Structure to design on (174 residues):
């Protein structure tokens, strides 16, 4: 039985953010602050789940499948639960590209708990422990992860707008 985990989603989103094919596991591991063996296992799980495939010895993302999971399934597998007020990195509607559309909601800003974060808000558990660190290193990945957090939420408007933005970003290069 294959069970997708948060690292698998993070790996797939990083590949999408890089817009490249044939990215060595070592490169992905360094960019995501994990071990190369974790990347190898992640590719195996995502292939079995149909979220990635191998073509000419290259690992590729099934963008349509990933998009379907992000928009319609992720909130059931990785629900976004509000935690305690903490210092962290803005996510969901508190980060772009959605932030400008939710100016009135900033009193309830979601954040990934992170000691070096500059914002206070209610905590949202990230998909993987290295999400805040990896997001700070890659603005494109950060946007994707923030959109995913909005899609994981329970508010219809946030999920709808996040779904539209994710569709644009995932399907633009497909």
């Amino acid at each position: 039985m294959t069970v997708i985990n948060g690292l698998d989603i993070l790996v797939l989103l990083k590949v999408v953010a890089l817009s490249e094919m044939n990215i060595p596991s070592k490169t992905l591991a360094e960019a995501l602050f994990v071990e190369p063996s974790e990347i190898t296992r992640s590719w195996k799980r995502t292939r079995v789940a149909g979220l990635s495939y191998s073509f000419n010895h290259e690992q590729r993302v099934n963008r349509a499948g990933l998009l379907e999971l992000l928009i319609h399934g992720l909130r059931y597998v990785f629900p976004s639960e509000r935690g305690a007020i903490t210092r962290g990195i803005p996510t969901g509607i508190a980060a772009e590209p959605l932030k400008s559309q939710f100016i009135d909601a900033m009193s309830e800003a979601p954040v990934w708990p992170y000691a070096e974060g500059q914002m206070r808000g209610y905590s949202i558990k990230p998909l993987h422990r290295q999400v805040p660190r990896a997001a700070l290193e890659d603005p494109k990945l950060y946007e994707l992860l923030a959109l995913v957090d909005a899609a994981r939420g329970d508010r219809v408007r946030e999920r709808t707008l996040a779904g539209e933005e994710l569709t644009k970003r995932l399907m633009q290069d497909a």
Summary: The chain has a mean pLDDT of 92. The chain has two domains: 6-77, 85-171. The radius of gyration is 15 Å.
